Amino acid sequence: MSDSVWARLRGHRWLPQATAVVVLAALVAGFFVVRAERRADHNAAVLARACGGVLPRDAVRDLLSGDVRWELRTGAGPRALAGCAVGGTGEDEPRLEFAAVPLADPPLKGVRAEDLAGDTPYASAPEWAREHERADTQVTVACPAGLPGHPRRVTGFRVYASLVGGPEAAAELGPAVAALANDVRERNRCGGVPVRPSDARAPAPARDDGGEREENPAPCRWFGGKTESAAGGEHAWARGCAIGLPATDVHAVSSASWWGDVLPEARTEYGAELAGLGGGAPASAVRRSYEVAAWARSRCAQGTTLHRVSVSGLDKAALAARVDGLLDRYLAAATGCRDVEVLGKVWA
Question: Is the dihedral of CA 94, 100, 103, 104 positive or negative?
Fold first, then answer.
């Protein structure tokens, strides 16, 4: 009977061709199904390793294309605390990029009073410290215990993320950014408050203040008198102020305080002054301007702190008489300080 069936099949006009097409279609469909399953398994394995496996699977998967094979790139530069990129490699294939970097101010150009009060007290920020400005979403995280491995105490970090090759997805990236931020917190034993997905937001646009200088900056408010000009700055480990006075025998006042990591640098920079405290009157040679500085040391909220107040002008007697009172006024305005020790004054 089978022979007769086969004979009828061979004798049929179109059935053999149709059967061949059905078999071929089944083979092709099976191939695509197997390839899709292998791609899905590969992508799941990549996602499980991305950023140490801490990213929420569903939230990330929904942002990427399941029709392409994902690749994983780990690391986000030498300064990064964590980072990875996961997704397609083509120009139009969505890819997610994550990074966590320490939150540190660029270094000061110098620690002298005039440096602290200047318009550009910092060296240029490195490029890695500004990458978050181009991200879709970011969050700043406090690390009260301090991040290990930094020459100066760093008590915060920033996590940011972008969806490259896809639509803007700031809100959708929140869970993944929060998960990475909390992993960095826990690994570095930061303490503080856990990060929530709602804490992650699009970076604020860069502020343009038009270059206008504040008339009475906070580091100069201790002076209280009439000024012709005032410039000041507060920084992580220091603050400084430079004041210009109306035409008198005392034409300029400056103040500065140092603590923490820059304290040794300040002692080195002003080593000659500190060594000469109490050294008496300036040289008798006539000069166009004289400067006398008074120094003090105290314990403030930040720890041991050095204070310096200086006045400059033409009248040596007026300068010497005024600098002690200005130092007293400056120290009285320094809240949270105790155990004040006046170290003396010196002609600069």
Answer: negative
Amino acid at residue number 163: L
What totals of helices (H) and strands (E) does the chain contain, helices first? Answer: 8, 11
Distance, in Å, from the CA atom of 97 to the CA atom of 169, rounded to the nearest integer, reads 12
Q: Which residue has the tokens 């991200």?
A: 135
Residue with tokens 């929140």: 174
Pairwise CA distance, residues 210 & 117, whole Å = 19
Residue 336: partners with Cβ closer than 8 Å, 6 or more residues away: 300, 301
The three-state secondary structure class of 130 is helix
Rounded distance, CA 246 to CA 153, Å?
41
List pLDDT tens digits, range 247-294.
Answer: 777 889 999 999 887 889 899 999 989 988 876 656 555 567 889 999
User: Which of 57, 48, 53, 46 is CA-nearest to residue 88?
Assistant: 46
Q: Are 345 and 285 in contact (CB under 8 A)?
A: no
The continuous run of DSSP H or E covering 267 comes out as: helix 263-269
HSE of 307, CA atoms in CB hemisphere, 13 A:
28
Look up tokens 């004979």; give the residue.
Answer: 7
Give pLDDT < 70 ranges for the chain.
1-36, 76-78, 105-106, 122-129, 168-170, 204-214, 279-287
| Pairing outcome for strands 338-347 and 303-313 | unpaired
Between the alpha carbon of residue 177 and those of residues 85, 91, 131, 147, the distances in Å are 13, 24, 15, 19
Q: CB–CB of 54/179 below 8 Å?
A: yes
User: What is the predicted pLDDT for the residue at 210?
Assistant: 44
Compute φ and ψ for 161, nearest 5 degrees: -150, 155
Please check whether residue 256 is in contact with residue 307, taking contact to mean a CB–CB distance below 8 angstroms. Answer: yes
Tokens 């008496």, located at residue: 280
156-164/137-142 β-pairing: antiparallel
Place of tokens 């090759």: 165
Question: What is the Cα–Cα distance from 127 to 280, expressed in whole angstroms?
Answer: 49
